[in-house]
Amino acid sequence: MTDTATLAGLDAATLGDMLKVAASPRFDRWQDQIKRTGGCSDPIHLTGWSITKDKATGETLRAYTTDTEPGGRLRIACGNRRASRCPACAWTYAGDTYHLIRAGLVGDTRHDIPATIRHRPRVFATLTAPSFGPVHNRPTHGVCRCGTAHRDDDPALGTPLDPDAYDYAGAVLFNNHAGELWHRFVNRLRREVAAQVGITQKEFKEVARLSYGKVAEFQKRGAVHFHAVIRLDGPDGPDTAPPSWASTELLTRAIRDAAAHPYVTAEVPSRATAGFPDGWRLRWGRQLDVRPIKAFGDGSEITEQAVASYVAKYATKAAENTGTVDRRIGNREAAILLGLPDHPRRLIEACFDLDPLYPDRRLTAWAHMLGFRGHFSSKSRRYSTTLGVLRQIRADYRAEQERQALGLDGHEPDTVLVLASWQYAGHGYSPGESALAATIHRGLQLGRETAREALRDQPVLEGAKP
């Protein structure tokens, strides 16, 4: 059940607890619960009961209570999107994000998204933060400014060449305003597209619509940038074709013009004290990448599947790759006690220093995110389906499986009445349970990877579409 490497890394107390759990009389049921969560790292514990009755006859079709469960509790998945907190639930979230983004690229009849959107103007754009000071990097050609050819795993990458001259205040304020900057960019992009074809913004809304799905990513220097799928539709979204003047080239030019526009921030109080005697402008960095998205199988690197996979990957991440932590920090002293690297620690301290000057920006609350307070993944209303719809499809599928397993498939859902009462009873594991759950998760993950590889190795029939 548990691999040798895992056993070797356990202390005596954890190993003893694990053996105690495995030897318990209800262990098989406990293991089944954890498998149903996908090997969740921090499951929610519930106590309660449910009764399923036939509406017409009042007959009890099924009665359930957690009294018979291991420890008297039912364990369900925590649902956390962050891979650093729960790899199992993050895997599910990434899968939902993948299908959401892909549906907006290839269409999906289950969600009334026509396949014709594959022929719409659409690009994959990456908008970055401006420079806050030179940092150690790995240029495509040559070496870093410091004279070193850094390795991929060099901890110096992304850190300032001169920390004392680095604009830490500007960096955290950019992160903090990044979500609003994106909204301003989208509004500006509509204006730029309209200007390209010589129509007003009102006329643009009557004939076309911008649709997008995006994800935020932290660079190693601790600055947020966005990856976005941007598409031109007709006025009602995927259901209507864009006007004849819409093209990928036009969309690309408009994105470049909108990204180059200077966006003035909201009113900045105490500018001199904050280090901005002349005020400051919120704008994107000079590094901008805009590439057309090609149909799957044409030999292009920027394919529909590659884009959906890329967005899904970063939807489960936060600021951990910068060296910070994935939970809130109580005060600036805590950042020192956590033993964080110098660069992320200075960014966190800048959040605490600037918080009194910008009380409405809640910089202290988001210090662990280096000031960023926006959504990591989001989309426009008509881009594709929603995460809620995808979750409901999965819930309905599991409910049908459960109905068949309980012999209730002969009763239509609207002919039964379910009465239930649930209470929160805690979360998480004991040390031994945690080790066993991690093993279950690895087993499930290995099974998924094996199945994926098997599908990938299957020969493609001649004439079949990929």
Number of domains: 3
- Helical amount among residues, as a percent range? 25-40%
Low-confidence stretches: 266-278, 460-466
- Could you give the distance between the termini? 38 Å
- Rg over CA atoms, rounded to whole Å, is 26 Å
The 3D shape can be described as: globular
Main sheet strand line-up: 9-4-6-5-10
Number of discrete helical segments: 13
Number of strands: 11
Structural class per helix/strand content? alpha+beta
**Main sheet properties:** 5 strands, antiparallel
Topology pattern, helix = H, strand = E: HHHEEEHEHHEEHEHEEHHHEHEH
Average of per-residue pLDDT values: 86
Q: Determine the strand fraction and express it as a percent band.
A: 15-25%
Organism: Streptomyces justiciae
Pfam family, one: RepSA
InterPro entries: RepSA (IPR046828), RepSA_streptomyces (IPR048241)
Protein name: Replication initiator protein RepSA
